[in-house]
């Protein structure tokens, strides 16, 4: 009798362990903090499948602060440009080569990123703070994904396709709340270009409702 009870208890524990968490934590097992990318076989995949994989890895890296992993995806020749809002200004938006990004990644150097919509206040922050507080202002690992399509859109000019006409992009969209009439939505977009058979990020564009 005791032996049967013990077996039943063990089976019960194992079955509980197998239940999946409806909101699992972001896995960082595949995020290698090294100079190697995790998508070495990416060229065998379709563009859409490959960029969905890369998009998710970028989100995971930013969420947990693995900015050195993010750096591995920066375009080797064109670098990466950060736009605070949907309108991309190549003359004013902050741009980093991969080497500069790695140089300032843990630096206390303050950069001017642009001006806040509405107040016009100049937004200044270190690179790491910008990534944490602006780029990832919401948990985009729980967002709605789209490929080469915009889900988020407001009254601000979105010139992404004009500025990057031959590029692919991904969008991570978080709908606005009913309480605020849906206007508190947010979107994070990654723009990609191919180089030597792999896709690299050339732009990080945030978008939200503007006045």
Automatic annotation (TrEMBL):
Source superkingdom: Bacteria
UniProt name for this protein: Lipoprotein
């Amino acid at each position: 009798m005791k032996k049967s009870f013990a077996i039943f208890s063990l089976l019960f524990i194992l079955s509980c362990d197998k239940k999946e968490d409806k909101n699992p934590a972001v896995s960082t097992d595949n995020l290698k903090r090294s100079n190697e990318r995790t998508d070495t076989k990416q060229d065998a995949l379709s563009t859409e499948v490959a960029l969905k994989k890369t998009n998710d890895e970028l989100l995971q890296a930013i969420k947990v602060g693995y900015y050195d992993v993010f750096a591995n995806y920066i375009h080797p020749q064109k670098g990466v440009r950060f736009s605070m809002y949907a309108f991309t200004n190549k003359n004013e938006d902050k741009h980093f080569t991969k080497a500069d990004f790695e140089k300032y990644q843990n630096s206390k150097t303050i950069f001017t990123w642009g001006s806040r919509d509405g107040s016009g206040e100049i937004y200044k922050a270190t690179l790491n703070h910008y990534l944490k507080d602006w780029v990832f202002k919401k948990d985009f690992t729980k967002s709605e994904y789209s490929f080469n399509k915009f889900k988020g859109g407001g009254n601000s000019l979105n010139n992404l396709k004009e500025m990057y006409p031959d590029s692919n992009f991904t969008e991570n969209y978080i709908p606005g709340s009913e309480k605020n009439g849906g206007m508190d939505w947010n979107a994070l977009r990654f723009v990609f270009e191919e180089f030597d058979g792999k896709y690299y990020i050339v732009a990080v564009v945030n978008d939200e409702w503007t006045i």
